[in-house]
Amino acid sequence: MLYLAIDQHKKHLTINIRNEQGDVIQKGQVSTNHADIDDFFVAFAKKARKHRGYMAIVEVCGFNDWLLAKLQKTRCSEIVVIQPENSAVNKTDKRDANTLGELLWNNRKRLQGGQRPNGIRRIFPADPADAQVRQLANFRQHLVKHRTKTINKIKGIINKHNMAQDAPTENYSTTKFKEWIATVQLPAVDRIEVNMNIQSWELYDKQILEVEAELVKRSEHKNR
Which H or E element spans position 129? Predict the structure, then answer.
Protein backbone atom coordinates (compact mmCIF):
# COMPACT_ATOMS: atom_id res chain seq x y z
CA MET A 1 0.00 0.00 0.00
CA LEU A 2 1.13 3.55 -0.77
CA TYR A 3 0.15 6.63 1.22
CA LEU A 4 -0.39 9.89 -0.66
CA ALA A 5 -0.55 13.20 1.21
CA ILE A 6 -1.59 16.33 -0.68
CA ASP A 7 -1.31 19.95 0.34
CA GLN A 8 -3.63 21.59 -2.17
CA HIS A 9 -3.39 25.04 -3.68
CA LYS A 10 -5.11 26.57 -6.69
CA LYS A 11 -2.11 26.34 -9.02
CA HIS A 12 -0.25 23.34 -7.63
CA LEU A 13 -0.34 20.31 -5.36
CA THR A 14 2.48 19.60 -2.94
CA ILE A 15 2.70 15.82 -2.63
CA ASN A 16 4.33 13.45 -0.16
CA ILE A 17 4.23 9.70 -0.87
CA ARG A 18 5.18 7.01 1.64
CA ASN A 19 5.53 3.26 1.22
CA GLU A 20 4.31 0.58 3.62
CA GLN A 21 7.48 0.97 5.71
CA GLY A 22 6.82 4.69 6.19
CA ASP A 23 9.70 5.82 3.97
CA VAL A 24 9.09 8.91 1.83
CA ILE A 25 9.60 7.69 -1.72
CA GLN A 26 8.45 10.78 -3.58
CA LYS A 27 7.79 14.42 -2.80
CA GLY A 28 7.51 17.68 -4.68
CA GLN A 29 4.99 19.83 -6.48
CA VAL A 30 2.64 19.11 -9.36
CA SER A 31 1.02 21.85 -11.41
CA THR A 32 -2.78 21.69 -11.49
CA ASN A 33 -2.96 22.36 -15.22
CA HIS A 34 -4.79 19.51 -16.92
CA ALA A 35 -1.85 17.88 -18.68
CA ASP A 36 0.47 17.82 -15.65
CA ILE A 37 -2.14 16.61 -13.17
CA ASP A 38 -3.31 13.88 -15.55
CA ASP A 39 0.26 12.72 -16.15
CA PHE A 40 0.91 12.56 -12.41
CA PHE A 41 -2.18 10.52 -11.58
CA VAL A 42 -1.70 8.11 -14.50
CA ALA A 43 1.87 7.40 -13.36
CA PHE A 44 0.97 7.27 -9.67
CA ALA A 45 -2.04 4.98 -10.18
CA LYS A 46 0.18 2.59 -12.16
CA LYS A 47 2.74 2.60 -9.35
CA ALA A 48 0.06 2.14 -6.68
CA ARG A 49 -1.34 -0.95 -8.41
CA LYS A 50 2.03 -2.65 -7.88
CA HIS A 51 1.70 -1.92 -4.14
CA ARG A 52 -1.91 -3.16 -3.73
CA GLY A 53 -3.41 0.29 -4.02
CA TYR A 54 -3.17 3.49 -2.02
CA MET A 55 -4.75 5.76 0.57
CA ALA A 56 -4.81 9.55 0.37
CA ILE A 57 -5.18 12.45 2.77
CA VAL A 58 -6.06 16.06 1.94
CA GLU A 59 -7.31 19.07 3.86
CA VAL A 60 -10.80 20.28 3.05
CA CYS A 61 -11.02 23.52 1.07
CA GLY A 62 -13.40 25.31 -1.27
CA PHE A 63 -11.99 23.75 -4.43
CA ASN A 64 -11.56 20.09 -3.43
CA ASP A 65 -14.28 18.68 -5.70
CA TRP A 66 -12.17 17.97 -8.77
CA LEU A 67 -9.34 16.48 -6.70
CA LEU A 68 -11.61 14.16 -4.72
CA ALA A 69 -13.17 13.03 -8.01
CA LYS A 70 -9.69 12.35 -9.40
CA LEU A 71 -8.77 10.27 -6.34
CA GLN A 72 -11.96 8.24 -6.68
CA LYS A 73 -11.39 7.70 -10.40
CA THR A 74 -7.91 6.32 -9.72
CA ARG A 75 -9.40 3.85 -7.21
CA CYS A 76 -8.04 5.30 -4.00
CA SER A 77 -9.09 2.80 -1.32
CA GLU A 78 -9.48 5.41 1.43
CA ILE A 79 -9.78 9.18 1.00
CA VAL A 80 -9.25 10.98 4.30
CA VAL A 81 -10.46 14.57 4.22
CA ILE A 82 -9.53 16.55 7.31
CA GLN A 83 -10.28 19.93 8.80
CA PRO A 84 -7.04 21.97 8.75
CA GLU A 85 -5.56 23.02 12.05
CA ASN A 86 -4.68 26.63 12.87
CA SER A 87 -1.84 27.97 10.74
CA ALA A 88 1.58 27.55 12.28
CA VAL A 89 4.27 30.23 12.26
CA ASN A 90 6.69 28.07 10.25
CA LYS A 91 4.01 26.71 7.94
CA THR A 92 5.21 25.64 4.48
CA ASP A 93 3.66 23.50 1.76
CA LYS A 94 6.35 20.81 2.06
CA ARG A 95 6.07 20.68 5.84
CA ASP A 96 2.29 20.48 5.60
CA ALA A 97 2.41 17.62 3.10
CA ASN A 98 4.96 15.77 5.20
CA THR A 99 2.85 16.19 8.36
CA LEU A 100 -0.24 14.96 6.53
CA GLY A 101 1.75 11.99 5.27
CA GLU A 102 2.83 11.08 8.80
CA LEU A 103 -0.74 11.31 10.06
CA LEU A 104 -1.98 9.06 7.28
CA TRP A 105 0.76 6.47 7.68
CA ASN A 106 0.46 6.39 11.48
CA ASN A 107 -3.27 5.73 11.15
CA ARG A 108 -3.09 3.22 8.31
CA LYS A 109 -3.98 0.20 10.46
CA ARG A 110 -6.88 1.96 12.12
CA LEU A 111 -8.23 3.10 8.75
CA GLN A 112 -7.88 -0.39 7.29
CA GLY A 113 -9.78 -1.75 10.27
CA GLY A 114 -12.57 0.78 9.93
CA GLN A 115 -11.60 2.52 13.16
CA ARG A 116 -11.57 6.21 13.91
CA PRO A 117 -8.11 7.73 13.21
CA ASN A 118 -6.15 9.37 16.01
CA GLY A 119 -5.06 13.02 15.91
CA ILE A 120 -7.19 13.80 12.86
CA ARG A 121 -10.29 15.98 12.63
CA ARG A 122 -11.78 13.93 9.84
CA ILE A 123 -14.83 15.13 7.93
CA PHE A 124 -16.96 13.36 5.37
CA PRO A 125 -17.89 15.47 2.33
CA ALA A 126 -21.53 15.39 1.33
CA ASP A 127 -22.75 13.13 -1.43
CA PRO A 128 -22.52 15.04 -4.76
CA ALA A 129 -26.31 15.23 -5.09
CA ASP A 130 -26.70 16.51 -1.51
CA ALA A 131 -23.84 18.96 -2.05
CA GLN A 132 -25.62 20.40 -5.09
CA VAL A 133 -28.85 20.84 -3.12
CA ARG A 134 -26.90 22.59 -0.38
CA GLN A 135 -25.25 24.83 -2.97
CA LEU A 136 -28.64 25.73 -4.44
CA ALA A 137 -30.06 26.48 -0.99
CA ASN A 138 -27.10 28.72 -0.18
CA PHE A 139 -27.46 30.48 -3.53
CA ARG A 140 -31.15 31.09 -2.87
CA GLN A 141 -30.24 32.62 0.48
CA HIS A 142 -27.69 34.84 -1.29
CA LEU A 143 -30.33 36.03 -3.79
CA VAL A 144 -32.89 36.71 -1.06
CA LYS A 145 -30.32 38.72 0.89
CA HIS A 146 -29.51 40.91 -2.12
CA ARG A 147 -33.18 41.34 -3.00
CA THR A 148 -33.77 42.61 0.54
CA LYS A 149 -30.89 45.08 0.16
CA THR A 150 -32.42 46.31 -3.09
CA ILE A 151 -35.83 46.82 -1.50
CA ASN A 152 -34.18 48.64 1.41
CA LYS A 153 -32.52 51.05 -1.02
CA ILE A 154 -35.96 51.91 -2.41
CA LYS A 155 -37.26 52.21 1.14
CA GLY A 156 -34.49 54.69 1.90
CA ILE A 157 -35.57 56.96 -0.95
CA ILE A 158 -39.19 56.79 0.21
CA ASN A 159 -38.16 57.77 3.73
CA LYS A 160 -35.98 60.57 2.38
CA HIS A 161 -39.09 62.23 1.01
CA ASN A 162 -41.36 61.28 3.95
CA MET A 163 -43.58 59.28 1.59
CA ALA A 164 -43.99 56.09 3.62
CA GLN A 165 -47.39 57.32 4.76
CA ASP A 166 -48.53 57.44 1.11
CA ALA A 167 -47.60 53.83 0.37
CA PRO A 168 -50.55 51.43 -0.16
CA THR A 169 -49.08 48.92 2.27
CA GLU A 170 -46.51 48.82 5.06
CA ASN A 171 -45.04 45.65 3.58
CA TYR A 172 -42.50 46.94 1.06
CA SER A 173 -41.76 43.48 -0.36
CA THR A 174 -45.22 43.10 -1.95
CA THR A 175 -46.24 43.44 -5.59
CA LYS A 176 -48.72 46.12 -4.54
CA PHE A 177 -45.91 48.29 -3.17
CA LYS A 178 -43.76 47.63 -6.24
CA GLU A 179 -46.53 48.80 -8.57
CA TRP A 180 -47.01 51.95 -6.50
CA ILE A 181 -43.34 52.91 -6.29
CA ALA A 182 -42.99 52.35 -10.07
CA THR A 183 -45.39 55.23 -10.80
CA VAL A 184 -45.14 57.61 -7.83
CA GLN A 185 -43.64 61.02 -8.62
CA LEU A 186 -40.02 61.44 -7.55
CA PRO A 187 -37.11 63.79 -8.35
CA ALA A 188 -35.31 62.78 -11.54
CA VAL A 189 -32.22 61.17 -9.98
CA ASP A 190 -34.28 59.31 -7.39
CA ARG A 191 -36.60 58.11 -10.15
CA ILE A 192 -33.64 56.70 -12.09
CA GLU A 193 -32.30 54.93 -9.00
CA VAL A 194 -35.71 53.50 -8.05
CA ASN A 195 -36.36 52.29 -11.60
CA MET A 196 -33.04 50.48 -11.73
CA ASN A 197 -33.60 48.96 -8.31
CA ILE A 198 -37.04 47.76 -9.43
CA GLN A 199 -35.37 46.04 -12.39
CA SER A 200 -32.92 44.36 -10.01
CA TRP A 201 -35.79 43.41 -7.71
CA GLU A 202 -37.70 41.76 -10.55
CA LEU A 203 -34.58 39.92 -11.68
CA TYR A 204 -33.99 38.59 -8.16
CA ASP A 205 -37.64 37.48 -8.01
CA LYS A 206 -37.19 35.56 -11.27
CA GLN A 207 -33.90 33.97 -10.20
CA ILE A 208 -35.25 32.96 -6.79
CA LEU A 209 -38.23 31.24 -8.43
CA GLU A 210 -35.89 29.38 -10.80
CA VAL A 211 -33.71 28.17 -7.92
CA GLU A 212 -36.76 27.15 -5.88
CA ALA A 213 -38.16 25.20 -8.85
CA GLU A 214 -34.84 23.34 -9.17
CA LEU A 215 -34.86 22.55 -5.43
CA VAL A 216 -38.40 21.16 -5.71
CA LYS A 217 -37.41 19.06 -8.73
CA ARG A 218 -34.45 17.56 -6.91
CA SER A 219 -36.52 16.90 -3.80
CA GLU A 220 -39.18 15.07 -5.83
CA HIS A 221 -36.52 13.03 -7.64
CA LYS A 222 -34.88 12.04 -4.33
CA ASN A 223 -38.21 10.93 -2.82
CA ARG A 224 -39.15 8.64 -5.70
Answer: helix 128-160
β-pairing verdict for 122-123 and 24-31: unpaired
* Dihedral sign from CA coordinates of 164, 169, 170, 171: negative
| Range in 18-32, 42-56, 83-97, 186-200 the model is least confident about | 83-97
Cβ-contact 140, 42 below 8 angstroms: no
Q: Which residue in 184, 144, 146 sits closest to 165, CA to CA?
A: 184
User: How far, in Å, CA of 58 to CA of 67, rounded?
Assistant: 9
- Cβ(31)–Cβ(11) under 8 Å? yes
Q: Distance of alpha carbon 179 from its chain centroid, rounded?
A: 38
Which one-letter amino acid corresponds to residue 202?
E
28, β-bridge pairs: 15
Predicted pLDDT at 125: 85
Is it the case that residue 180 has pLDDT exceeding 80?
A: yes
The pTM score is: 0.76
Q: What is the CATH number of domain 2-123?
A: 3.30.420.140
